[in-house]
Amino acid sequence: MRKAIYPGSFDPVTTGHIDVIQRATRLYDQIVIGVAKTPPKKPFFSLEERVDFLVSSFVNQDKVLVETLEGLAVEFAKKHQAEIIVRGLRAVSDFEHEFQMAQLNRKLDPDIETVFIIASPNSAYLSSSIVKEIAQYKGSVKGLVPPKVEEGLKKKFGFSYS
Ligand code: ADP
After folding, report:
1. Burial annotation 67-90 (CB, 10 A radius, 16+ → b, else e)
2. Residue 143 falls inside a structural domain
């Protein structure tokens, strides 16, 4: 059984993340999504909301498991008997941070490999922050996020899309 973890903030999950997860399920038997309890930036959505958005995006998909992540990704991987950390790469701007993280995780545990999935052209421009920015100004995020996230953004910003 080949297991991989996919750690991140998912604040909130976008169709870009979903694309990475779905493509990763073709490579591995199980993907354990690790939703960071305390991401580097103060999250907009609570941990419960971020987890719930992911859980409702993957109902009936037994290859995908959603868990909360506190602490180091390598420890989370070991806890789930996973040898792979999946991350997504959009543009060169992602590279520096991802390179550093991958090297650091390798230093922490050389038995765990980081594997990068290159963003699909139709979601390479997507990020959780851009989605929040659009919603903040009442723009439509339809198709950029799962329907439940769209609802969640509407609720938070107190409006409904036409
Ligand atoms: P983090 O705070 O750990 O960067 P994110 O939720 O922002 O968490 O992202 C998790 C991972 O998903 C990162 O590797 C990021 O590069 C990747 N990612 C984010 N958005 C996309 C996208 N649209 N396409 C592909 N990968 C993405």
Report:
1. eebeeebbebbeeeebbbbbbbbb
2. no
Q: Which domain holds residue 15?
A: 3-124
pLDDT confidence bin for 160, thresholds 50/70/90 = low
Kindly report, residue by residue over 71-92, the tens digit of the pLDDT: 999 999 999 999 999 999 998 8
How far is ligand 1, taken at its centre, from the CA of residue 137, in Å? 23
Shortest CA distance to 38 belongs to which of 5, 68, 66? Answer: 68
Choice among 63, 90, 138, 156 that is catalytic: 90
Q: How many structural domains comprise the chain?
A: 1
At 107, list the tokens: 């230093």
Does any domain span residue 141? no
Q: Whose C-alpha lies nearest to ligand 1, atom 1? A: 8
What is the pTM for the complete model shown? 0.96
Q: Please confirm, yes or no, whether 26 is among the known catalytic residues.
A: no
Residue 144 belongs to some domain of the structure: no
Question: For the domain that residue 62 is a member of, what is the CATH number?
Answer: 3.40.50.620
Residue 158 lies in a domain: no
pLDDT, tens digit (0-9, with 9 covering 90-100), for 114-142? 999 999 999 999 999 999 999 999 999 99
